[in-house]
Amino acid sequence: MRSFILIFAAFAVSGPAAAQTWQEYSYPDYAFRVSFPADPQVEATTFRVADDRSVEAHVYSVRRDNAEFKVTVAELADPGLEENAVIDHAVKALSAGGEVKVDIPHRINRVFGRQLSIMQGDGSRAAVALFDYNGRLYQIVATSLPTGDDATADAIRFVQSLTFTGGGSNRTAQEIEAGRAGCVGTGGAAAAGNPGAAGAGDGRFEIRCRRQQTLALLVSSLNSGDLSGARQAYATLSQLQNGGPARANPSGPFAQAMNQIGEALQSGDVVAAQQALSSLRRPRGENRQP
């Protein structure tokens, strides 16, 4: 699906942001790496993890005219802080005055969390990932501001650059198996493999699962006429297509429709993208998805 990937590249390199030099920064004391477009500012602060409780935190951030990139690492030393409650509180705070457009399970290697897209009241859009891991809350947020050039591609790049070091997990083998059972598709059971081993089959299943979820987000965004959300979903899907085995025929109807959607989104033509999407809505068996 070479054309599909090249269209994403056009999203990623357009505008002044292409001149920015991205670099990976490693923070071994907090077991993560992430890429920033410039040297981040580091601040020791507090972070509210519940209505009546704040904890120590460190914030790593870079701000540009059209975007803000921020990682917050909050200490969760209190065993009474339950994972879902902490993440739900973070989502509530991040979405205050806005609307959560996307809220799906997310995973980096064997660390599980949530991925969100939030439309703020001022027109900005935040790409978010949240993880409760190793006694800490990791909150990574890239905000595309309603000023200057569209920073959607950079926002996606930033959030997806987060990597946890050390090879740990915040789930047991049984919990991982149960979570993977929730993402079904052709060959899903065979691809699931052994939950206790992070092998090639495990990675292929994860990519297939995320493709299915992201394609659903693309369809939802196009159906609602959400150009920014559709661009974000398309760019994410393109990266996933590039990051794993592509099973779709490059000259087949699915690939052709996706290329047409990408071209339409690049030019800002939502109607044309919706028309290309309609070509995928055919009886079962006529089109195959990746």
Written description of the protein model:
It is built from nine helices and ten strands. With about 290 residues, the chain is α+β, with helices and mostly antiparallel strands. It has two domains: about 20-170, Protein Transport Mog1p, Chain A, CATH 3.40.1000.10; about 170-290, no CATH class. The protein has a seven-stranded antiparallel β-sheet. A three-stranded antiparallel β-sheet has the order 1-2-10. The longest helix has 24 residues, at about 200-225. Mean pLDDT is about 80; it is low at about 1-5, about 15-20, about 185-200 and about 285-290.
Short description:
This protein has 290 residues and is α+β, with helices and mostly antiparallel strands.
Summary keywords:
alpha+beta, seven-stranded antiparallel sheet, three-stranded antiparallel sheet, 290 residues, Protein Transport Mog1p, Chain A, globular, 9 helices
